[in-house]
Write a structure and sequence with these properties.
heterodimer; A: Thrombin, subunit H; six-stranded antiparallel beta barrel; 6 helices; B: 170 residues; mainly alpha; two-stranded antiparallel ribbon; 7 helices; 71% helix
């Protein structure tokens, strides 16, 4: 026994090294889990406050861009509202039938305080948290398209998994043909994302619009993701290799909207029940 | 705590803050990162205890990780550097040994020695960091490009800072 202690003591540096490395490895693996309410990330109070202050200084340099963007958004929303009103008037629809379906989604506006695009696993920190009703798993969009999902929340801040994260997959479809696939980032170019699992018999074209499919109840259906930039089909592959140019420039995120899906629990539970019956 | 201990305690925060507020936003060509905080471990005094080095490395890495949202990643890479540092210092001891109680800087040991000292350790750090982040070797080419570009970038910044402190000391 004494020899054992002596042995451990003699190589104490190595054993400490091993211990710390194992602990780090455990942290890395643990952090890769999709959803979590964790303390040690940029949504914790001290870290978020530091980042917020830094961001509020940086913001002055992009105020002009943000203003233009918000004005454009206002204009397009107003136009949509007018169109909608006209349609309703034409049909003579005074009262909408199913309130639950109409109010499926609520939108919570939030400001981006931390963002990266050049790592393999990019995360975004925003300034809304549990206090505003955010929960892990909610979708986040902007005017120009899909952004990501909420990963973890603290009382006033949350961390999002960006679309630019090699672990993140979003169910999507080609708007023109209606075929479903999955978008996933390959880790290289922050302007381009891959569309996978589009079978051979479909003929996607350069310029086709890619939108979210609404299959997973996280994203509302039809949120813009991007436009096809390049289509390749190799001899032996069962799927097309499609590069999609993102409609949202992730380097310029300023304001985003968190989508609160009121019927998500219902859709999920129905799906789980169905799967249970099949087994 | 000795005077040098207090200085290094403050330097810890200086490096951490510089990294998360300034250098985090500084990425060239989408591949070249500047991980200046590694220098904190490299420039601790020569006789610093191995255990203390690793502990400091872990704490600094962990702090950086909180802001990068990559828990464990930077800590892991920095602990490797902290572990290897003293062995590497032993291997490349210059003739006449080190000045006791002083950090192994460019000023005290010369440019050639400093490059031999810093390049392998920085390379190991970047290598561990990027390949752990990529979770394997499936993106080998691009990840290696990131490693090399970041090495060049970080090294340039380190050398510039070393030359600045050289001027000041004269």
């Amino acid at each position: 026994m004494e020899r054992l202690f002596k042995f451990v003591y003699k190589y104490r540096a190595f054993f400490t090294f091993l211990l710390l490395e194992l602990f780090c490895a455990w942290l890395v693996v643990e952090n890769n889990q999709y959803q979590s309410t964790r303390y040690f990330n940029s949504s914790n109070q001290i870290a978020a406050n530091i980042i917020s202050t830094s961001q509020s200084i940086k913001e002055y340099f992009s105020l002009r861009d943000i203003n233009t963007q918000l004005a454009n958004e206002n204009a397009s929303l107003r136009k949509k509202l007018d169109d909608r009103n006209q349609v309703i008037e034409e049909i003579g629809l005074s009262q909408l039938k199913n309130v639950a379906i109409v109010n499926r989604f609520e939108y919570i506006s939030a400001k981006v305080i931390n963002n990266s695009t050049s790592q393999y696993k990019n995360f975004i920190t925003i300034n809304k948290g549990i206090d505003s009703g955010l929960q892990p798993g909610m979708a986040v969009i902007s005017v120009q398209g899909a952004i990501g999902k909420v990963k973890s929340v603290s009382s006033h801040h949350s961390v999002l998994i960006s679309l630019l994260n090699i672990d993140d997959q979003v169910s999507s479809k080609i708007k023109r043909t209606g075929h479903f696939g999955t978008v996933q980032w390959d880790g290289t170019d922050p302007r381009v994302i891959d569309l996978r699992y589009i079978p051979r018999h479909v003929s996607p074209l350069v310029g086709d619009t890619i939108v979210t499919s609404g299959y997973n109840a996280v994203f509302p259906e039809g949120i813009l993701i991007g436009i096809i930039k390049e289509v390749k089909l190799s001899e032996e592959s069962p799927f097309h290799q499609i590069k999609v140019e993102l409609s949202q420039d992730f380097g310029k995120l300023a304001f985003v909207e968190v989508v609160k899906s009121n019927l998500k629990a219902e859709q999920d539970s129905v799906e789980v029940i169905t799967k249970g019956i099949q087994k | 705590m000795s005077k040098s201990g207090i200085i290094h305690f403050f330097l810890f925060f200086v490096y951490a803050i510089a990294q998360v507020l300034l250098l985090k936003n500084l990425v060239l060509f989408n591949t070249a990162f500047c991980f200046l905080y590694v220098v904190f471990i490299l420039l601790l005094p020569v006789e610093t205890n191995n255990l203390l080095l690793m502990l400091a490395g872990f704490l600094l890495g962990f702090t950086i990780d909180i802001f990068y949202d990559s828990l464990g990643l930077h800590a892991m890479a920095l602990v490797v550097v902290a572990y290897l540092r003293n062995y590497w210092l032993g291997v490349i001891t210059p003739q006449g040994g080190y000045d006791s109680g002083l950090p192994p800087t460019l000023a005290s040991n010369g440019l050639q020695w400093f490059l031999i000292y810093a390049i392998p350790l920085l390379f190991v750090h970047h290598f561990v960091l990027f390949f752990t982040e990529a979770a394997g070797f499936s993106r080998f080419g691009f990840t290696l490009l990131k490693v090399v570009m970041s090495l060049l970038f970080t090294l340039s910044v380190v050398l510039i800072l070393q030359y600045f402190s050289l001027e000041r000391r004269r």
